[in-house]
Design goal:
Length: 80
């Protein structure tokens, strides 16, 4: 019931915002909201990249090096 905003509710919200801020302030408000969303996405991407880098480093450190296997030599004995 509260999860979806329909067209009617969206229009009511826009009318209320228009009444509160006025038509002259709306472009500046929209611009600042756009910049805030852009900065938020940039910040979350940086956090995600840092976590991925940390996880990759942890996996690389936890993975033991493969033990060196001795080479098996085959000696062939031929009889003539």
């Amino acid at each position: 019931m509260f999860g979806r905003i329909g067209m009617g509710e969206l229009l009511i919200i826009l009318v209320v915002v228009l009444l509160i801020f006025g038509p002259t302030k709306l472009p500046a408000l929209a611009k600042s909201m756009g910049q805030a969303v852009k900065e938020f996405r940039k910040g979350t991407q940086e956090v995600e990249d840092g976590l991925n880098k940390l996880a990759n480093e942890t996996v690389a450190e936890a993975k033991p090096a493969a033990p060196a296997q001795p080479q098996q030599t085959t000696q062939s004995t031929e009889t003539k």
